[in-house]
Amino acid sequence: MVAFVSDTCATVDLLVGGEFFEEFLGACQEPVKVKVGLEIELEDKSLFSINSKEMSPCVSIRKTPGTNPKTLAFEDKLKVEVKKPIRTDLAYRGTVTIEMLVIRKVVISDLPCGTGILGQRILENKVESDFSIIADDGTRLECNKRALAAMLQMDCKESREKVIKLNMSAKGVEALLKFIYYSNLDDPMKTSNIAFELLEIGHQYEILGLENAMRNILLGQKCEWFEIDAVVLLYLWTLKVDGNEDLKWKALLAFKLKPDELKSSRVFDKLLKEDPNSAKDLFAICLKTLSCYWT
């Protein structure tokens, strides 16, 4: 319901409910929140738009006779500024979007026995740093050989030369060392690019708990959180590594939300240049799978 305070100011009462939402809430085993977006246009020009906060369900009182007076619904109240006064003799076009967010708990298990604050200080102060990791941009990061060897298998040459080169960004290597030294997951929780790097390296080297932790993070985050490069890389990775159908669907759902960002994806540009057939296959598979999923 929209109530105008003045010609250019209004309050909007949002109420999202009904049988569909009640049945969904009853069947869902996890907490659900709802976000509502509303945009009003006149002659293809935006008059005003609103985006609600993430609303949790509450008990709403129905005033309709003959219906259950109490129901679960999502409610919010917003104040909006209108660019031009609303006129009753004009036709306006409105677009309403309702986003349902299933709140999954990110459960991290099987982590290495880190040393907490002590491990963090040892890493930051480079105590007994007798080994180097080289990132893909040539950056060298120092660490302790024994701490690294306990988690990551090295060949004889790498062990002898006290250096290993990993196909990771410098920030990815930093996040890996934080995980090894004191089981820290702050960096992959912030960015999908680092989360994917750690997923890939955890699988490649069978690092205790790392791959599973990254799977839980990637599956637990909202699709909007993903960067487009991570989406493309994650989808390609799931095609090569069996048993990751859930991650594949997550990548596809995130891909669907980011068609405009694909233009700026360096990963996709590289794929188009170096392997155009694979790029075409990827795009075709995504479109085909999504059309089947959403129809």
From TrEMBL:
InterPro entries according to UniProt: BTB/POZ_dom, SKP1/BTB/POZ_sf
Alphabetical list of SUPFAM superfamilies matching this protein: POZ domain
Annotated Pfam families: BTB
Domain BTB, residue spans: 124-219
Top-level taxonomic group: Eukaryota
Protein name: BTB domain-containing protein
